[in-house]
Task: structure prediction
Amino acid sequence: MRIWYVVVALVCLGFTRIYEINEKDVERILTVLSSDKMEGRKINTPGIARASAFIEKEFSTIKLGHLPGLTSYKQTFEVHSRQVTNSRVLVAGQTLPKSAYFILPGSDTLHWNAQNAPTPFYIKASDSFRAKMGQVLSGNQDYLVFIDAQHKQIFNQYRSYFSQPKLVLPNPNTQARNHKVFILQSGSSFNHFDIAASLQIKKVSLNNVVGVIPGKRTNEMVLFSAHYDHLGTSSRSIDDTIYNGANDDASGVTAIIELARYFKSKRQPERTLVFAAFTAEEVGGFGSKYFSNQLNPDEIVAMLNIEMIGKESKEGVNSAWMTGWDKSNLGSILQANLQQIDFKFFADPYPDQQLFYRSDNATLARLGVPAHSISTTQIDIDKDYHQISDEVSTLDITNITNTIKAIAVGSQGIVDGRQTPTRVNPAEVD
Result:
């Protein structure tokens, strides 16, 4: 009887059992999210709807709260799908085959010639194709891009990817065209051309999955995020047709679910914690873009975006790297908090890959949030990245579990309100 009174007293005083992040739960979640049943989690498919429902159920089991203004974990929004239905490109009197160009359409029909087209932009043989393309794709203007034939192989990869319908968030305040035309052509100057394209525009409904642990400070939020969409299926394979996306990014979504369970098992945090599974990262980061428009970025103290933590990093086991290390002191805070455990955070070892700008953290970083992505994968040599072979069997469950634990421990001072990362300078995020 005396023991029973002690237990009651401890519960009344708030001494509840803290959940221990473990390999069994990590493997369970990861296996479901990357199963064939999810059909590669491509946007606007039954497979991604099943993935959303699974994440919602996990959030409900954890008893997370809803984002203010929502009555469920689904944050639904609409995008417009723009697809070129007919096109014609003439250069110097020659009609180009469709294999020699691709078009990212704007909001109206397209008809350019030498008199009304934007000034041509050239990607020369000596240029970094990825860097130049990044400049064009992030630009909020029309572009007519001539690409040297030396870049044919990577041009074809981009053409295949961007031949899919282009998604845009509706913006009633602007009617910007933002057409972007890419032509593979040798030479340095083209003054005679005629480009025409007609468009088909459809409305598409998408949703993020968001859960909240309300903190004592409702106007200070710590955001843990990952994207739950992937590439869907392939018609080019016979034996296996599904891009399961176990590492990219079922591993990250598994992390935010486990972090939510861990922090929910503790006392009420000082700062409000938000756990977001974003959609449409693979096609332009539309989930995070919509999400960022619904909150005051000044109230987001930090964003830890978790992307591909399923494999051993370049620094070996018990280590992870973070993009944009020099743009805030978030990485230094995480590392300083891990002095008592065998784990290390270090700077992104692949700066030429521009990874800071290629995941959902970039949207919030452009608003000044200390927003960074955490990963372990050796992206420069990983043979499973964006391949059908990205299966659970290729991943290290122990590595994932230890990385999640390190994020939990490393972020504790921020969650508690004792540490606040420096803000990102938006001018340094192009």
About this structure: Residues 17-65+214-428 form a domain with the Aminopeptidase fold (CATH 3.40.630.10).
